[in-house]
Amino acid sequence: MKKKLIITAALCGAGTTKAQSPHVPITPDEIVADAVACAKAGAAVVHLHVRDENGKNTMATEKFVEVVGKVRKAIADEGLDIILNLTTSGSAFSEELRMAHLEALQPEMCSYDPGTMNWANSYVFLNTPAFLEKLGTKCQELQIKPEIEIFDAGMIGNIEHYIKKGFLKTPLHCQFVLDVPGGMPGNLESLSYLLPKLPQGSTWSITGIGKSHVSMMLAGLAAGCNGLRVGLEDNIFMEKGVYATNVQLVARAVEFGKMAGREIATAAEARQILGLKERQ
């Protein structure tokens, strides 16, 4: 199969607010509407965080159940297909709560942040060794593909450790998230350093935060990435001063992929590339 390009839409993240962008989806219905629109625009994967009634980040299992249930129904009603990738990030919450929705919903993918860092020099993005061992074990038990989110170089060494100890199973899928203050910058030097260190057989995707969003997409395409991640979790502008929507960001990624000679993967094709267990 010709190397297809997987587009992931990261819809809202944990922290993007309506004050920052009027287009960020906060409510369940807004998240559902954007998931459907992004699937129609070419996204094969939707990466989901959820918010509480006040628009703040939450890991409450019942909120995930509500939102994911509505997304699944809306996607099915539209005759669409998409892979759901649920977050497990959430330093403010217990390790048990960060995993509870995986058992309840059994998504095809979830995020796996293989290390701790000082996020934006403002708080500790905490991922303890004990949590990473438990999460890796849980993913294998439930046959969920972990998306290994790489923010910094030391995380490569960490994933090698968890592979060796059996908590991660190869082949991996790695998501470079570059230009978070406290992590590696979003530039060619970072990418050229990280890529040769990926475990053999890994697939990989890339996103740049904020101003590096477009340049990291282009760098990833030049380097032969398997996927691009876009969305208001990572970047709120189409260009300086012009607010983006999630659908616009997906459409631009699709266009960049086609310009680079890449066909855009459907959800079914993405499952084949990533080796996912499809849920009925």
Automatic annotation (TrEMBL):
Domain of life: Bacteria
Cofactor: Zn(2+)
InterPro entries, sorted: Aldolase_TIM (IPR013785), BKACE (IPR008567)
One protein family per Pfam: BKACE
Entry EC number(s): 2.3.1.247
Keywords: Acyltransferase, Metal-binding, Transferase, Zinc
GO molecular function: acyltransferase activity
Bilayer-spanning residue ranges: none
Protein name: 3-keto-5-aminohexanoate cleavage enzyme
Species for this entry: Sporomusa silvacetica DSM 10669
Phylogenetic classification of the source organism: Bacteria, Bacillati, Bacillota, Negativicutes, Selenomonadales
